[in-house]
Amino acid sequence: MTSLDKPTEDTDQTPPGESGEGDARAVTEAALFEAFGGVRGMVETVVPGLLFVAIFTVNKDLHLSAIAALAVSLVLVVVRLAMKDTVKHAFSGVFGVVFGVVFAMFTGNAKDFYLPGMLYTLGLALAYIVTTLLGVPLIGVVLGPVFKENLSWRTRNPGRKKAYAKSSWAWGLILLAKCAILFPLYWWSDTTRLGWVLVALKIPPFLLAVWLTWVFLAKAPAPIDVFAEMEAEEQAEKAEKERKAALAAESGEPEAMPGRHRRQA
Question: How many Å apart are CA 223 and CA 42, to the nearest integer?
């Protein structure tokens, strides 16, 4: 076991309430905030759909509702770019709105604005469950790079793998429950009711899944920083090369002296 594996053991041995546990919780909070975009990311996912259903509720105009939702999504991206901030969450919102607008315009049914997002939610729920059953929980694949551990948890950190599995089950089941509410509304309810229910279900299930992920990971062993390991290996290789070069230089000096004596003779 390398020295870089030791934090995993130390985290297990840290008594509850001491600084080790507090540091783990703080790191987990920061990583989740980065991965899921925080409050701003949630706003960017909610506003376009909220604007669509609000406008459609008032005037039943599919084209105006779709254009307004797409326009506000683009504005959110432009604001991100102007602030030189990461645009991945805003861009994901734009893509979702674009697909929704294309579907709705193609079919002429305003409900279809929500269908791509609902299908994505269903696919994501199944992905969380299937990958967990296969031993590679999706939430670990997503958060591994954020924690600088990549996929090291699969073989080197079983406690952390277990936490990722629990988190992925939570995400999968929560999203399936959300789909169980939305799809019957899509089939049997009107566009306005579906839209308002969908907007209402945007944030609460997400917050519940993030909170459960935080609970599971905060109690898990610390991540193994594979980036630090790679840097340490590079430093060790560099030091070894320097040592060999120094030895070669030292061993070469005695060999050069006899040659000079022979030339002088």
Answer: 26
DSSP string, 217-253: HHTSPPPP-HHHHHHHHHHHHHHHHHHHHHHHHHHHH
The pLDDT of residue 224 is 86
Q: Cα 35–157–161 angle (5° rounding)? A: 55
CA distance 33 to 42: 11
pLDDT in tens, 176-205: 999 999 999 999 999 999 999 999 998 899
* Number of residues assigned to the chain: 265
Structure tokens at 117: 């997002």
Range 63-69, long-range pairs (CB < 8 A, 24+ positions): 63/105, 65/110, 65/113, 66/100, 66/101, 66/104, 66/105, 66/113, 67/101, 69/97, 69/100, 69/101, 69/113
- Whether 46 and 203 have beta carbons less than 8 Å apart is answered as yes
User: pLDDT tens for residues 235-260?
Assistant: 878 888 888 887 777 776 554 444 44
* Rg over CA atoms, the chain: 27
Question: How is residue 218 written in tokens?
Answer: 């905060």
Type of residue numbered 9: E
pTM: 0.76
CB 56 within 8 A of CB 195: yes
- Taking the C-alpha atoms of residue 31 and residue 113, their distance in angstroms, rounded to an integer, is 32
Confidence (pLDDT) at 114: 93
Rounded CA separation 197/185 (Å): 9
* pLDDT tens digits, one per residue of 45-93: 888 888 899 999 898 888 898 899 889 888 888 887 787 776 666 667 7
The tokens for 114 are 């929500």
- Which pairs count as long-range contacts for 78-83, CB under 8 Å and 24+ apart, including other chains? none
